[in-house]
Each structure stands twice: as structure tokens, then as C-alpha cells.
Design a protein that fits this description.
Layout lengths: L1 H5 L30 E2 L3 H9 L20 E2 L5 H5 L3 H25 L4 E6 L4 E6 L18
Parallel strand pairs: 1-2
Antiparallel strand pairs: 3-4
């Protein structure tokens, strides 16, 4: 390159790093749910804003959720899994059980919530349960990944 010939004393320029702070055009406006969404994830927050909606901050636990339908993104396991930190991953599971899953199960049992759907998008799995399933004692319990 001619620019490198002029810079014979310096290191060779062999790449160009594109960086910018402008808006990236979105081909299609994301379709956002009509339900309230609770999450702390910045990517989800940005996609919802592009779609013309908002994300509410994630409450500390399930008891702080208002009644009614909602979408909640719980990413307590993400950092531990991404960095291979077994201790943080385990602590995330314990926090999910104490703050979210156990209270939501109690809400199902008491009738405060009619149904509960859990998805694992990274695994392509989902399950849904309601109060009536607790009376089907003849069915063996399944782990979430056994529903595929």
C-alpha cells in the first residue's frame, strides 16, 4: 500500500477497525408483546424500545410482581455459565429457587396465579403448568429438558 510506503519507519497498517456511534437501521420493527415485560437485560431493553415499548426493572423476587400476566426474564445463571464459574452458577440457581420458583409454586397452589410457563430459549425448550397438574399424581415428574 502506498500509505505504508510513506510510513516506512512505523508499523504496517494492515486493517481498518470500523467503529461508530450512529444509529443502525433496523430492517423490521420488532414485534413486542402486549404484556408487561420485566428484565434487567440491556439487549432486551433496546429491542423493546425499538419496538415502541418499555421494559420494567426486574423486581427483587416473585412476591414483588404485580398480579396478572407478565413476561419475566431471569438471567441469574448467565454470568456463571458464560465464565465457567460453578460457584456463581450454583448461587444463581439457589437465588432463583428461593426468590422466584418457590414463591411462584405457592402462588399456583393458592390460586393467586392460574398458570406458569417457563422457557429455555437457548435449549429450545418450554413447559407450562397450572393448578390442575398437581392432582395428576399418577404422572411421573419430568425435568424441563425431558419435555422436548
Amino acid at each position: 500500500y502506498a500509505v505504508n510506503d510513506k510510513r516506512s519507519d512505523a508499523q504496517t497498517i494492515n486493517s481498518l477497525w470500523l467503529w461508530g456511534g450512529s444509529d443502525y437501521p433496523v430492517a423490521d420493527t420488532p414485534v413486542v408483546p402486549e404484556l408487561p415485560v420485566y428484565a434487567d437485560d440491556l439487549l432486551l431493553r433496546g429491542l423493546m424500545q425499538i419496538g415502541g415499548s418499555d421494559v420494567q426493572p426486574l423486581p427483587a423476587n416473585a412476591a414483588a410482581l404485580p398480579s396478572g400476566d407478565a413476561l419475566v426474564m431471569l438471567d441469574h445463571l448467565r454470568l456463571g455459565a458464560c465464565y465457567g464459574n460453578a460457584h456463581d452458577w450454583r448461587e444463581g440457581w439457589l437465588a432463583l429457587e428461593k426468590d422466584w420458583f418457590a414463591p411462584l409454586l405457592e402462588d399456583l397452589k393458592s390460586g393467586k396465579r392460574k398458570s406458569l410457563a417457563i422457557t429455555f430459549p437457548e435449549l429450545g425448550l418450554a413447559l407450562q403448568t397450572d393448578r390442575s397438574l398437581r392432582w395428576k399424581f399418577w404422572q411421573k415428574p419430568k425435568l424441563p429438558w425431558a419435555f422436548a
